Structures are given as structure tokens and as C-alpha cells.
């Protein structure tokens, strides 16, 4: 009996201590599950995007990132998001394949209290925590202005354009198309003779452009909504025996890898590109501030771009550390 009391006090103290230690360590190691719904994994821009997302999330030991691939299928992406919610994610990051089909699920997640960060392509309305992306209208306008200048220098009257668009239901395609039409207003000799779609994919750009070149051969400019599609159209123009030296091919993305547009400009295929950042690092940093500090982010963060042409491609290669 005599020993019992001090021992039980000791035991109680030890238990308390243990609880205290447990509480302390669980506060230190609270883990957050971040769900990333990516629209596709099958092109170089998305691959770079995913790599940067993994790298950014790797900086935070309290973050676990789960990335899912919608394979360019909006219905699958809706199911992917539902699945992530079932896995009890603390925050959703999404790059939506198309705006309209993803709007309802994004709103549902946001309304349920899970923060949602939308990247690169947008949904309709503003039922999300924040949007991070470049200004696609601005980029399209810059591309149009570049074409306007080029057509003047080349003295092409008219100056005929083939447009190769991204997926029509995705916001960058809509905005890059609208911006381009603004930009070319500076030169009344420019005519968009045909507009075809590649849905962002090089494999689809090639036959779409081939059909356009078969119908009409008098194109001076190919404005593609992304570099992959510009490269696909370039191959189609080569196959159609067009005089490539008299033509301008331009796209958007400006990747620095060896198959990317900066190297393509140096090798003489593309004439211009515009850097399109993905926002992965910014999204992860904001996710961390939202979850660990309760910070309220701005509704929208607009990322910058960079115009890369034959004039500055060499310097851009140094700046972006491109692979040669
Ligand atoms: C990659 C991509 C890019 C383009 C972006 C638009 O999947 O097609 O080439 O800039 O998506 O969202």
C-alpha cells in the first residue's frame, strides 16, 4: 500500500507526460493532404508542370501531394475530384480540362469548405478560393501585334493566317483567340483565312493543318495557340511543300527543353513564342499559407510572360537555361 501511492502518482505523471509529448509531436507533424487534379500528363508542358508541382510540394514536410490524371476527359476529371474529396484532401488544386463541365464540381468542393486553387485554365464564375495563371488575352494580343509587324515588314498584302486553336471549351483557347484578333487590328491587310482546332495536341494539329493547306496554299502565317500545335502544323507545311522560309510559325508556351520552342526558334522552325508559366510553385506556397497560417489569398494572381523571337532567342536560352 505504501509503495502504491508514489508509484501511481509516477504512473499518472508518466501518462500525462506521454499525452503531452504526443500532443506536442502531433502539433509539429500535422500532415496536410493536397489533391492535384491535372487534366493530362501527355505533353511536355504538363510534364514540366507536374515536375514543378512535385518539387514545390517537396519543400514542405507537412504536405503530401496526390496527383491524378484526367487524360483530357472532363467527365473523368469530375470523377477524379470526387475521388480526391473522398480521400479527405485538405485542399484541392485543379487545372481544368474545360471550363463549363468542371464548374459545378469545383463550386461544390469550395462550398463544402475545402479551399480550391484553380490553375492555368479557368472554370466559369468565381466559386473557388483563388485563380493563378497568365493573362491569355494579353499573350494573344502580343502574338497578334507581332504578326501585324511581321506582315508589314514582309509587305504581304493580304497577309493570310491559319489559326490552329486549342480546345474550344478551355479558357486559354478562347482568350488566345480573342487577344490575337485584337492584336492584328494594327494591320488591316491581315486575314484569318482558316481556323482549325488541334485541341492543344500536336498529333491533331498535323492532320488539321494538312487539310487547311490542301484547301488553300496561300498562307503566310500559322498562329497556333500552343507550341506543340505550331510544330505539328510546321510538319504539315513541310509535307505540303510550302515555302517555309516565306512563312511565320508562332506558338505559345516557350519551354526551354530540347524539343521546346526556344530551341525551335534557334533551329529556324518557329519564329516566335510566348512563355506561359504554370503557377505550380505559387499554388503550393499559397496552399501552405492558407492551411498553416489561415491567410486569405488574393482572388487572382496573374503571372507574367516573355516574348521570345529570332531576335532574342539566344539570350532567352541563357535566361531560361535551355537544353541544347
Ligand atoms: C498543355 C497546354 C499548353 C497550353 C496550355 C493551355 O496541356 O496545351 O500547351 O499552353 O495547356 O491550358
Secondary structure elements and their pairing?
Elements: H1 4-28, E1 32-38, H2 44-58, E2 63-69, H3 74-86, E3 91-94, H4 99-111, E4 116-119, E5 130-134, H5 136-154, E6 159-165, H6 171-183, E7 190-197, H7 202-215, E8 221-224, H8 227-239, E9 248-250, H9 261-266, E10 272-274, H10 280-293, E11 300-303, E12 307-309, H11 313-319
Helix pairs in contact: 2-10, 3-4, 5-6, 7-8
The structure holds beta-D-fructofuranose.
Residues 40, 43, 45-46, 120-121, 166, 170, 172, 200, 226, 228, 252-253, 276 line the site of beta-D-fructofuranose.
Walk me through this protein's architecture.
The protein is α/β, with parallel strands linked by helices and 324 residues long. It folds into 2 domains: 132 residues, Rossmann fold; 153 residues, Response regulator (Rossmann fold, 3-Layer(aba) Sandwich), CATH 3.40.50.2300. It has 11 helices and 12 strands. The strands form 3 sheets. The protein has a 6-stranded parallel beta sheet with strand order 2-1-3-4-5-11, with helices on both faces. Strands 7-6-8-9 form a 4-stranded parallel beta sheet, with helices on both faces. A two-stranded antiparallel sheet has the order 10-12. Helix 2 packs parallel to helix 10, helix 3 packs parallel to helix 4 and helix 5 runs parallel beside helix 6. The protein is elongated. The N terminus is likely disordered. Beta-D-fructofuranose (FRU) binds next to helix 2.
Amino acid at each position: 500500500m505504501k509503495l502504491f501511492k508514489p508509484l501511481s502518482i509516477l504512473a499518472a505523471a508518466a501518462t500525462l507526460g506521454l499525452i503531452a509529448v504526443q500532443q506536442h509531436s502531433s502539433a509539429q507533424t500535422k500532415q496536410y493532404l493536397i489533391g492535384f487534379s491535372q487534366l493530362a500528363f501527355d505533353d511536355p508542358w504538363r510534364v514540366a508542370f507536374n515536375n514543378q508541382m512535385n518539387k514545390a510540394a517537396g519543400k514542405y514536410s507537412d504536405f503530401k501531394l496526390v496527383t491524378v490524371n484526367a487524360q483530357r476527359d472532363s467527365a473523368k476529371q469530375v470523377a477524379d475530384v470526387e475521388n480526391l474529396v473522398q480521400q479527405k484532401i485538405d485542399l484541392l488544386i485543379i487545372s481544368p480540362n474545360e471550363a463549363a463541365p468542371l464548374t459545378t464540381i469545383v463550386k461544390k468542393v469550395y462550398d463544402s469548405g475545402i479551399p480550391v486553387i484553380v490553375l492555368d485554365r479557368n472554370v466559369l464564375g468565381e466559386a473557388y478560393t483563388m485563380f493563378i495563371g497568365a493573362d491569355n488575352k494579353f499573350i494573344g494580343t502580343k502574338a497578334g501585334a507581332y504578326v501585324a509587324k511581321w506582315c508589314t515588314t514582309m509587305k504581304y498584302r493580304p497577309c493570310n493566317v491559319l489559326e490552329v486553336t486549342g480546345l474550344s471549351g478551355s479558357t486559354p483557347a478562347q482568350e488566345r483567340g480573342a487577344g490575337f484578333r485584337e492584336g492584328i487590328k494594327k494591320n488591316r491587310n491581315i486575314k484569318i483565312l482558316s481556323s482549325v482546332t488541334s485541341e492543344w495536341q500536336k498529333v491533331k494539329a498535323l492532320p488539321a493543318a494538312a487539310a487547311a493547306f490542301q484547301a488553300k496554299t496561300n498562307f503566310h502565317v500559322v498562329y497556333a495557340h500552343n507550341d506543340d500545335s505550331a510544330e505539328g502544323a510546321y510538319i504539315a507545311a513541310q509535307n505540303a511543300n510550302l515555302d517555309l522560309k516565306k512563312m511565320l510559325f508562332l506558338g505559345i508556351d516557350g519551354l526551354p527543353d530540347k524539343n521546346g520552342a526556344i530551341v525551335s526558334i534557334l533551329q529556324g522552325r518557329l519564329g516566335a513564342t510566348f512563355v506561359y508559366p504554370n503557377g505550380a510553385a505559387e499554388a503550393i506556397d499559397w496552399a501552405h499559407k492558407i492551411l498553416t497560417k489561415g491567410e486569405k489569398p488574393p482572388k487572382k494572381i496573374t503571372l507574367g510572360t516573355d516574348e521570345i523571337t529570332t531576335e532574342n532567342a539566344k539570350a532567352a536560352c541563357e535566361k531560361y537555361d535551355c537544353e541544347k
